[in-house]
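Archive maintenance. Older records in this collection stored only the sequence; we are now back-filling the structure field for every entry so that each record is complete. The fields below show one back-filled record exactly as it appears after the update. Entries are processed alphabetically, and Oxidoreductase is next in the queue.

ARCHIVE ENTRY
Title: Oxidoreductase
Organism field: Virgisporangium aliadipatigenens
Length field: 256
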Amino acid sequence: MPTVGAMNDTLHHRTAVVTGAAKGIGAGIATALAAAGAPVVVNYRTDDTAAERVVRNITEAGGRAVAVRADVTRRGEVSALFAAAREAFGPVRVLVNNAGVYTFAPFTDVTEEDYRRQVDTNLWGTLLTMQAMAAQNDIDDGAIINLSTAGTVGHPPYSAMYVATKSAVNSVTLIAAKELAPRGIRVNAIAPSPSDTDGTRAMGFVGSPQADATVAGIPLGRLGTPEDYGPVAVFLASPAARWITGDVLLVSGGQR
Ligand SMILES: NC(=O)c1ccc[n+]([C@@H]2O[C@H](COP(=O)([O-])OP(=O)(O)OC[C@H]3O[C@@H](n4cnc5c(N)ncnc54)[C@H](OP(=O)(O)O)[C@@H]3O)[C@@H](O)[C@H]2O)c1
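Back-filled structure field:
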């Protein structure tokens, strides 16, 4: 469970939706945004208990948060997510597209199921929530932060489908940044290195020989953690980043 830092007011009243925030990097980002004063919607797909734990962690530290179940691959559920967010806290001004899935295999072994699951969640899900954000006619500024991967720079083997979806996310980020700039909505991406999360633990990566080999290629010498990404998301969502849009920021301990 990510730790809550000292509370401050950087994002006061700036309602944030973080997709896939019940676990891993999303939980770290939701926690950091709340500590910076944003009322946060903790979105998740299946795990009510994990989502409620993140909400409790935030509220016990003095922040505001609600959990909203919605599958980002379904347009109707994304609409309901934004309706619930607006009902709870007002117009959404910060959207973090963190919900993502990954499988690693030689490209020769990629199945249609792997392809559809990753494209649906990582690319289509990101597009749907960005459309819902843009459909709000009562905001005249905002920040969208998409989760990419450092793999879009390094192109590691056995990641063809996953990295392809995130490369597409980078393109959507850069293009939407231009389309939304006249409305004062900035669009950026964070590209993490391999990290210690619920997802990478569940797949047996953390503690494995592959993880050791990966760490050997990370100049700062460790896997990322959910706490590494929260402060970067707070910065990108804040007025301090007012002149940054259409960028993909490597947050990777120097890995490229
Ligand atoms: N971990 C890494 O090494 C790493 C590196 C680079 C980039 N990233 C990116 O960072 C993001 C988070 O990764 P992570 O490892 O922290 O993930 P994780 O620990 O596996 O957690 C994923 C979260 O996303 C939710 N989710 C999955 N599909 C969803 C859907 N269709 N709708 C709504 N929520 C959904 C899950 O909800 P439920 O559990 O309730 O189903 C869970 O809360 C992903 O976009 C990933 O590609 C991760």
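Update note: Residues 112-134 form the longest helix (23 residues). The first strand starts at residue 15 and ends at 18.
Entry marked complete.
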